[in-house]
Amino acid sequence: MTTHSLTCMTLEMRGPVAVVGLHRPDKRNAINDTMIDEIHAVFSAPPKEARVIVLHGHGPHFSAGLDLSEHRDRGAFEVMMHSQTWHRAFHQVQMGGLPVVTALKGAVVGGGLELATASHVRVAEPSTFYALPEGQRGIFVGGGGSVRIARIIGAGRMTEMMLTGHAYNAQEGQAMGLSHYLVGEGEALAKAMELAERIAGNAPLSVYAAINALPRIHDMAHAEGLYTESLMAALVQTSGEARDRMRDFLEKRAPKAGS
Ligand code: 1HE
What we know:
- By secondary structure, this protein is α/β, with parallel strands linked by helices.
- The protein folds into 2 domains: about 10-200, 2-enoyl-CoA Hydratase, Chain A, domain 1; about 205-250, Lyase 2-enoyl-coa Hydratase, Chain  A, domain 2 (Orthogonal Bundle), CATH 1.10.12.
- It has helices spanning about 35-45, 70, 75-95, 110-115, 135, 145-155, 155-165, 170-175, 190-200, 205-220, 220-235, 240-250, and strands at about 10-15, 15-20, 50-55, 100-105, 105-110, 120-125, 130, 170, 180.
- The chain has a 6-stranded mixed beta sheet, with helices on both faces. Strands 5-7-8 form a 3-stranded mixed beta sheet.
- α1 (about 35-45) links the parallel β2 and β3 (about 50-55).
- The longest helix has 20 residues, at about 75-95.
- The radius of gyration is 19 Å and the shape is globular.
- It binds 3-methylmercaptopropionate-CoA (MMPA-CoA).
- 3-methylmercaptopropionate-CoA (MMPA-CoA) (1HE) binds near residues 133 and 137.
């Protein structure tokens, strides 16, 4: 198993699922430089036996975003470089090759929302709230939010969130697509595990295509998107595993869609 020496995060294997926890509960899992380095390391080299990653926060909050205590005194060039360390780390979350299911509760704010939106499936508890207090703090997003959050909720809504600092509650976040599942209090991690185990049963190449090809196709023009889709389909659909799985369905050995 890949070993990481972690101070701001936890990592444990549960079957095929790597469970990764943000672990600065005293600071509401505010993301400092060490945590960014650890996110980058863990998502770049997850344990070899992992098929899916579940991400969660220790304590009552997912994450209070950027650690403001480290950020106060940075100059312009330093802030740009710092922002790009976040881009690299969150790129590994989104495109590292393994699907990431995130369990959300409490504060999912600023950089915490940027991290959550780099993941693929999000499960929220009723305590979850989403906010972009950047305007109030006199800063801007820097962890990819202007791309990823805006893709989900629209640039207009994101502008509104940054201008007003308004917090959306769990139900509103669900309606906006910030979460995909809304569960009871204390139930997000268990639901995330259930979904992760289900995803772990999928064909790896299909999963890889879903997390790597789809967001890139989304950024393409219509014709290029369709062309890329057909290439990806050619690659995925002609794999031995695809043939086996289609045969299993046709010979009535596989579960039906929706079951
Ligand atoms: C922090 C941070 C932080 C808490 N950086 N230390 N993020 C924000 O603007 C959110 C700031 N945090 C909050 O609004 C609140 O802490 C919460 C709503 C998340 C939680 O409230 P609460 O009452 O449970 O906790 P608390 O008492 O405010 O905080 C507990 C401790 O965590 C306290 O430290 P202590 O030493 O006094 O115990 C807080 O200072 C500390 N703490 N949040 C540093 N964010 C790449 S660009 C991304 C841009 C952004 O992320 S902007 C959003 C920044």
